[in-house]
Amino acid sequence: MANSTLTKKRSTAYGSTVALKTAMAITGAILVLYLIAHMYGNLKIFSGQEAFDGYAHSLRELGYPMLPENGFLWIFRLVLLASVLIHIYAAVTLWARARRARPAAQRYKVNKRVARSYSSYTMRYGGVLVALFVVFHILHLTTNDIAPGGRSDSPYERLVNGFQPEFWYVTLFYVLSVIAVGLHLRHGIWSALATLGVNMSRRQGMLNAIALGIALIVTVGFLLPPLAVTFGLVS
Amino acid sequence: MNITLRVWRQKGQDDEGRLATYKLTDVSPDMSFLEMLDVLNEKLTLEDEDPVAFDHDCREGICGACGVVIDGEAHGPERTTTCQLHMRSFKDGDTITVEPWRAQAFPVVKDLVVDRGSFDRIIQAGGFISAPTGTAPDAHANPIPKPDADRAFDAATCIGCGACVAACPNASSMLFTAAKVTHLGMLPQGQPERAARVVKMINQQDEEDFGGCSNIGECAAVCPKGIPLDTISQLNRDLLGSLGKGVG
Ligand code: HEM
Ligand code: SF4
Ligand code: FES
Fold first, then answer.
1. What global pTM score does this model have?
2. Which residue of A89, A95, A112 to mutate against B (max B Cβ within 10 Å)?
C-alpha cells in the first residue's frame, strides 16, 4: 500500500487528539491545584469551629473591596466550572475516538495487561464517578439542599452533621469517591506531565513518584476530616 | 512439545472471523514461532484445508512484517518480534491463542494478516526529509553531538511493526509516529521541515482513525525495538511548539 494516496480531508492540528489531551492536561492541572487548596481549607476543621467558619467566610471576602463581596469566589467558581466542562468534553471526545479506533467487535479474545496501571485503567469510569460525586458534594456541603443530620448556616456544623456515624452510607460514598479521585490523580498527573512534553526517560520515575505523592496526599488529606467526625474526634 | 493452537481464521475483510483450534504434536522447542506456524500450514495443506495466512518477510527481526498477538501480548511473551520468538518460551501442553493486530486503522486482510497501509500514509504525510540528491556529503561535514545522534539512531530502529498500536488500549499509533518525529527531529537534516512535519503526521494519524494517546505505556512495554515512551513527550513538545507558531 506504499503508493496509496493520502486521504483528501485534512484535519487541523488545533483540533487534534494531542490538542484535546493538552486541554485536558491544563484543565486537570487547574483542578488539581484547586483540590490542594480545598484540602488545606478542610484540614482547618482540626483547629475548631471558629477557625473553619472564619476561613470559609474569608473566601467570600477575598479581594474585597477591590472586588464586590463574593466576587472572587464567583470568578473562581466560573474558572472551575469552565475547567470541568472542557475537561469532560475532551475526555468524552477521546473516549469516543478510542472506541472507534478499536470497535467492540474487534476486541481481543485474550487480553493481557503488560504495563498498564490500575489507575490508568479506571480513568474513564472513575472520572464519571468523580463527576457524580462533585454534584452530590455541592448539593450536600455548599448549597445544603441535601442535609443529612440537619441544615446549618455554619459550614462547620454542616460537615459535622453530615458525617455522623448514623449516616455511615454518606461517609462510605465519600470515602469511595475520594479514593476514586486519588486513583484519577495518580494516572492523571503523570499523564498531564507527559502530554505537556515534560517526560524524558531519566525523569520518568520521578514524574511518576510526583504523581503518586500528590495523589496520596490529596487522598489522605480529604479522608481525614469526615473520618474524624464519624469516629467522634471532631464534634 | 505438544501444543494446542487457537488461531483467528477470517476469510476476508467482510467475513466475521472466529477462533479455530488445532493440535500440533512434536513441536521442537528450537523452532521459531513462525516455523511452528509453517508446520501447522503443512499439516493443513495435507489435510486439504486452507493454510493460515500470516505476514512475514525477513524472519530476522528487521522488517516488521510478522506481528501477531499471542496470548494477549503483541509479539508474544518475549520483547522481540514474532519471528524471533521461539517455542522454548512455551511449555509442553500449552494452549496458545493467536490473533491479528486489532485496530480500525489496521483492517484484517485474511486470518492473521492486517493492512498497515495507514502507517505508510503517516510517513508519506511528513516522515521524510527533502534533500537534493547528488554525491553524498562528507561524513564529518555536519558534526552532531553524540547524545543527539544516539537518540536519533535509537528512534530510527522502529521497524513499523505496529505492535504499539496492537497493544494500546486506545489503538493509538503515538509511539510509532513519535519515533519518526524524534528520529528526524534530532538531526540537522530534519530541521527545515520540523515544525510542519509533526503537524502533518498527527493530522494523518487522526485521519486514519487511530485513537488518542493517554500515556498508559503498553506500547513501549511491547515494542520489540525498545522505542522509549518519552519520544511521545518529544512529539507533544514539537506539536505544541508548532501550534504556538501558528503552523497548524
Ligand atoms: C476533580 C475533578 C477532576 C480532576 C482534578 C481531574 C484531573 C485530571 C488530570 C490531571 C488528567 C490528565 C490529563 C492528561 O492525561 O493529559 C485527567 C485525565 C482524564 N480525566 Fe480527569 N479530572 C477530574 C474529573 C474528571 C471527570 C469528571 C471525568 C469524567 C468524564 C474525567 C475523565 C478523565 C479522563 C478520561 C482522562 C484521561 C485519562 C488518561 O489520560 O488516560 N476527569 N484528569
Ligand atoms: S514503535 Fe516499536 S512497536 Fe511501534 S511500530 Fe515501531 S518498532 Fe513496532
Ligand atoms: S519477519 Fe521481518 S521482523 Fe519478523
1. 0.92
2. A112
Is residue A158 in a domain? Answer: yes
Quick one: chain A helix, strand, coil %, rounded to 5? 75, 0, 25
Enumerate the residues of chain B whose CB falls inside 8 A of the CB of residue A14.
243, 248
pLDDT (tens digit per residue) in B108-147: 999 999 999 999 999 999 999 998 888 888 888 889 999 9
**Residue A76 covered by a domain:** yes
> Residue B216 Cα, ligand 3 centroid: separation in angstroms?
26
Per-residue burial over B183-202, b = 16 or more CB atoms within 10 Å of its CB, e = otherwise = bbbbbeebeebbbebbbbbb
- Provide the residue range defining the domain that includes A59: 15-103+117-230
CATH class for the region spanning B3-103: alpha beta
**Prediction ipTM score:** 0.92
CA–CA dist B71, B57 (Å, integer)? 22
Helices (H), chain B: 33-46, 117-126, 146-156, 163-167, 174-185, 194-207, 218-222, 230-244
B178 in contact with ligand 2, CB cutoff 6 A: no
Gap from A97 CA to chain B (nearest CA, Å): 6
Task: Give the model's pLDDT for residue A1.
Answer: 41
What are the chain B neighbours of A203 within 8 Å (beta carbons)? 230
Nearest CA to ligand 1 atom 7: A28
The ligand 2 atom nearest the CA atom of B167: 3
**Please, what is the angle between helix B230-244 and helix A168-195, to 10°?**
70
Number of domains in chain A: 1
Would you state the cell numbers that stand for residue A215, as one nine-digit string?
Answer: 495523589
In a domain, A166, yes or no: yes
B117: distance to nearest CA of chain A, Å?
A: 5
Q: How far apart are CA A200 and CA A194, in angstroms?
A: 9
| A33 part of a folded domain | yes
Is there an atom of ligand 2 within 6 Å of B101 CB? no
pLDDT at residue A210, as a whole number = 97
* Architecture field, domain B116-132+140-244: Orthogonal Bundle (1.10)
| Greatest alpha-carbon span in chain A | 74
Q: What is the pLDDT of residue A71?
A: 83
